[in-house]
Specification:
Number of strands: 6
Oligomer: single chain
Order of helices and strands: HEHEHEHEHHEHE
Shape: globular
Structural class: alpha/beta
Strand content: 15-25%
Bound molecules: adenosine-5'-triphosphate, magnesium ion
Length: 181
Amino acid sequence: MAPDPQVKKKLGLVQVYTGNGKGKTTACLGLAFRASGRGLNVLMLQFLKPDKGYGEHIAADMIPNFTIVPMGADHMCGEVVSREEDIRLTKEGLAKAEEALTSGEYDLVILDEINNTMSFGLATPDDVIALLERRAPNTEVVLSGRGVPQKIIDYADLVTEMRLIKHPFDKGIGARKGIEY
Ligand code: ATP
Ligand code: MG
């Protein structure tokens, strides 16, 4: 289904989902679901996340105009990942993001956990802004993850902070299949 040109015409803003409460990646996935229903072409690049067959990867395979590309090392499961490896994968991710943003092929590009790459010092806010500046007209971009830098807040059109009030992690309940991944 091709998107309505009237719908596409209104896209092109920069959205940010940040904060320490749960819901950032979930918000991105909800948005992707809604946009794909409208026939928009959606790409989610996941920084700092491995190709582990999360629930969202399985679901995205069922939607032809929604693609998820995980692009990070596996920090979970006790694996040791060097800083060099994180820097290398982040650089590769930024190159992929640039390709996706400049091509005009996607209506919505979600850069999941990209805020963390900046808060971990793997990428600078200037690197990310340079990339956003080059986005094709009518390509909407979403940046998610904790600790978004002020420069990005200033640049964005929409910023929402998920504020932590309670999380089951604090009473020892770990990540659950179908809810967290
Ligand atoms: P989700 O993917 O569930 O929407 P998120 O994107 O807001 O969560 P991240 O910062 O990406 O959260 O955190 C990665 C993992 O940590 C997710 O599995 C998430 O559910 C979990 N998590 C989120 N908030 C907290 C918290 N306050 N304490 C512990 N774990 C959390
Ligand atoms: Mg997340």
